[in-house]
């Protein structure tokens, strides 16, 4: 199953490298948004809460743009039958999950890198900040993957996606924002352990549910 | 992976919403036969072939695949099946060779067959061209290559010769002749020639029950 999943993921990576569907549009989006933030702020200093909030808002909208493609593009191009005829549903969801996670990490690395360069954000506790971003990414990509699977058969996919994703991701985003704020201010692990637990358990629940649910979504 | 295979359908019925497409279809197909599914446009040929391959589920009735009289789990049926269909597309952004390569990677089998099937369908010379620039007949040939890549026990083909030229048609003929010796071939078709490759019919027009046995 892992080999199959990895083969599916590799196929998607190669396809993304060939077509750059997601990456091109995302790159523009990220640069534009961060620049707008920079210009509208001017020389004003903003609080850590604001920084954390802005960061996660950018992350949310960029990823919810990019990650929906995994199932939608297979469905639209009529290639989903190929996957149905060559792999079991567990391999498919795992492969897509791995691909989306890799994509999320690339997107978010870019976002944070550009955000720090453009706004001059200083992070006091880089280690914990990275931990929160990493865990947040895992949660984000798992939610967005299963939602992508759910909406791929619907008609108005582009609107449905963020509308469905937002309420589901709200607990994750709130925990991530609050923990990110604290790490920017340099808080120790003890003060964000609650958020870490929250994010980790959230992710585990979502991934488990995805594996149970996906079979019914995939085979109509 | 060889043995005796059997597909058995009992009172198979499929509805879309309230419309009944076909009702109480019964048949039994054994290894070593070629069966045509016939019927007028919209009679449910493609639907039935999708149900056989577990891409779609029936509304009622049962359909099962048996290997040496042991029932194959539904979620494993795809391993035994090769499927050609106008509803299926391969990946445009990859070449013919890359498509077969990634498919055998996902399936975990068929790696050694790639060149062979490309030659069989006459695409070997063009194997490194992107699918994007293939003609429709070339795409159809590649679909056939995809279907036989893993030497399936059951070959399901929906209008396999559409878009094919004279040579392409004889490729389908040869493959059908080869497979029907000890495997199962099922062709959904209205085409007289495709029908002539098969020894018996499942006709979906008369919704009264048929029993077909390809022994
Ligand atoms: N997803 C679907 N939703 C609703 N109705 C459908 C769906 N798919 C097929 N149908 C209906 O089922 C019927 C049978 O369709 P199918 O494609 O199986 O016909 P067919 O026998 O293959 O026809 P043709 O000879 O044109 O290929 C048609 O009336 C079609 O409208
Ligand atoms: Mg049809």
Describe this structure in words.
The complex is a heterodimer of chains A (220) and B (215). With 220 residues, chain A is an all-alpha fold. Chain A has one domain (2-218). Helices cover 84% and strands 0% of the residues of chain A. Chain A has helices at 2-19, 21-41, 48-66, 69-77, 80-86, 89-119, 126-151, 157-184, 193-218. In chain A, helix 2 (21-41) runs antiparallel to helix 3 (48-66). The model of chain A has no long low-confidence stretch (mean pLDDT 91). Chain B is α/β, with parallel strands linked by helices and 215 residues long. Helices cover 27% and strands 27% of the residues of chain B. Chain B has 6 helices and 9 strands, in the order βββαβββαααβαβαβ. Chain B has a 5-stranded parallel sheet. A 4-stranded antiparallel sheet of chain B has the order 2-1-4-5, covered by helices on one side. In chain B, a hairpin with a 2-residue loop joins strand 4 and strand 5. The longest helix of chain B is centred in the last third of the chain and has 14 residues, at 166-179. Chain B is globular. The interface between A and B is medium-sized, with 26 and 27 residues. The complex binds adenosine-5'-triphosphate and magnesium ion. Adenosine-5'-triphosphate binds at residues 16, 21, 39, 41-47, 190 of chain B.
């Amino acid at each position: 199953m892992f080999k199959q999943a990895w083969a599916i993921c590799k196929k998607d990576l190669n396809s993304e490298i060939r077509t750059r569907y997601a990456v091109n549009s995302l790159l523009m989006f990220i640069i534009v948004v961060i620049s707008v933030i920079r210009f509208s702020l001017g020389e004003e200093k903003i609080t850590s809460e604001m920084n954390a909030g802005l960061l996660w808002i950018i992350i949310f909208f960029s990823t919810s743009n990019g990650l929906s493609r995994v199932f939608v593009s297979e469905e639209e191009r009529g290639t989903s039958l190929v996957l149905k005829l060559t792999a079991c549903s567990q391999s498919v969801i795992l492969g897509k999950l791995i691909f989306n996670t890799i994509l999320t990490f690339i997107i978010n690395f870019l976002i944070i890198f550009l955000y720090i360069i453009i706004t001059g954000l200083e992070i006091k506790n880089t280690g914990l900040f990275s931990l929160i971003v990493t865990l947040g990414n895992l949660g984000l990509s798992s939610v967005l993957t299963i939602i992508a699977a759910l909406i791929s058969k619907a008609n108005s996919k582009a609107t449905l996606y963020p509308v469905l994703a937002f309420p589901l991701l709200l607990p994750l985003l709130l925990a991530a924002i609050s923990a990110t704020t604290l790490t920017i201010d340099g808080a120790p692990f003890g003060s964000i352990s609650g958020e870490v637990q929250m994010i980790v358990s959230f992710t585990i629940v979502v991934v488990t549910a995805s594996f149970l649910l996906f079979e019914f979504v995939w085979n109509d | 992976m060889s043995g005796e295979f059997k597909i058995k359908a009992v009172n198979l019925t499929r509805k879309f919403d309230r419309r009944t497409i076909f009702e109480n279809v019964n048949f039994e197909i054994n290894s070593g036969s070629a069966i045509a599914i016939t019927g007028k446009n919209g009679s449910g040929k493609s639907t039935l072939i999708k149900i056989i391959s577990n891409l779609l589920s029936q509304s009622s009735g049962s359909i099962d695949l048996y290997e040496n009289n042991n029932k194959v789990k539904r979620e494993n049926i795809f391993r035994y099946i090769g499927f050609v269909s106008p509803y299926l597309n391969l990946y445009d952004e990859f070449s013919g060779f890359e498509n077969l390569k990634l498919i055998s990677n996902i399936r975990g089998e068929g790696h050694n067959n790639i060149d062979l099937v490309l030659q069989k369908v006459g695409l070997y010379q063009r194997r490194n061209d992107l699918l994007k620039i293939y003609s429709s007949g070339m795409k159809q040939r590649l679909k056939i290559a995809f279907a036989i890549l893993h030497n399936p026990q059951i070959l399901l083909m929906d209008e396999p010769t559409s878009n094919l030229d004279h040579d392409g048609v004889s490729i389908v003929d040869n493959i059908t002749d080869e497979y029907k010796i000890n495997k199962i071939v099922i062709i959904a078709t209205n085409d007289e020639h495709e029908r002539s490759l098969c020894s018996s019919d499942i006709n979906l027009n008369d919704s009264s029950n048929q029993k077909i046995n390809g022994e």
